[in-house]
Backbone:
């Protein structure tokens, strides 16, 4: 769903706590836009990077995972850039903030894949407002891919052959494990482990990658019972422990 908010129309009094390492990219060559987005992002403790044009942005975003992207619609190839982000593998579900002057472009921008529309010239308050509104989407996507470092015992079952291993990191969508017997890429794995609170998680997954050091990445696919709800609750608790304090109100 897209939201259209003109600067100064209203104010939402809402504190925002974002994960410590949250990262935003702005694709723009406009100094005023850079100043507004940079200040708005930094107000919430986020990291900010400026890319001046569509092509270097496309190359960078193909290699790096980003939480939020501001796209200046006045740069050449802005629509094509948004479309390529949505079709890519690294940031296909990233939150995209499109920044433009022409309301006639709104429909085209939304169809390309933008989540939010900001009217130029931008101000810091407008940027902060939209980041606040986007909090749920930002946190949801970060929870999906961000891996929490853990050291948990796990039982892996591949074709009725069981082995004990250790989980080294864990997210909503996957885990990395250290095994004694190497796993085969694309193998289907039955997984059973206990969270620190003693809640058992049983899930099926598929091996996404392996390396020569005995590590393997497993994409989690089919949870038993309420296992996914339990895992989501635990991950949320871990995030809350690492969130920064809300920024002071302006």
Residues:
């Amino acid at each position: 769903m897209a939201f259209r908010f003109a600067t100064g129309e209203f104010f939402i009094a809402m504190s925002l706590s974002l994960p410590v390492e949250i990262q935003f990219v702005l694709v723009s060559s406009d100094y005023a836009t850079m100043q507004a987005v940079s200040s708005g992002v930094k107000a919430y403790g986020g990291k900010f990077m400026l890319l001046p044009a569509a092509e270097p942005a496309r190359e960078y975003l193909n290699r790096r995972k980003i939480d939020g992207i501001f796209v200046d619609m006045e740069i050449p190839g802005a629509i094509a850039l948004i479309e390529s982000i949505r079709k890519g593998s690294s940031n296909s579900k990233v939150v995209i903030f499109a920044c433009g002057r022409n309301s006639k472009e709104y429909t085209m921008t939304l169809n390309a894949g933008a989540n939010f529309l900001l009217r130029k010239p931008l101000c810091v308050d407008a940027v902060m407002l939209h980041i606040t509104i986007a909090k749920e989407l930002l946190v949801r996507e970060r929870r999906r891919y961000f891996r929490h470092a853990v050291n948990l015992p796990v039982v892996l079952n591949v074709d009725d052959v069981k082995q004990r291993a250790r989980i080294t990191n864990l997210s909503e969508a996957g885990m990395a494990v250290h095994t004694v017997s190497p796993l085969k890429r694309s193998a289907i794995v039955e997984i059973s482990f206990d969270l620190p609170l003693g809640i058992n998680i049983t899930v099926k997954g598929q091996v996404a990658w392996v390396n020569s050091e005995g590590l393997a990445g497993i994409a989690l696919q089919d949870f038993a019972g309420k296992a996914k709800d339990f895992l989501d609750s635990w991950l949320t608790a871990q995030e809350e422990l690492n969130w920064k304090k809300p920024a002071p109100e302006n």
Residues 1-19, 244-250 have pLDDT under 50 and may be disordered. The radius of gyration is 21 Å.
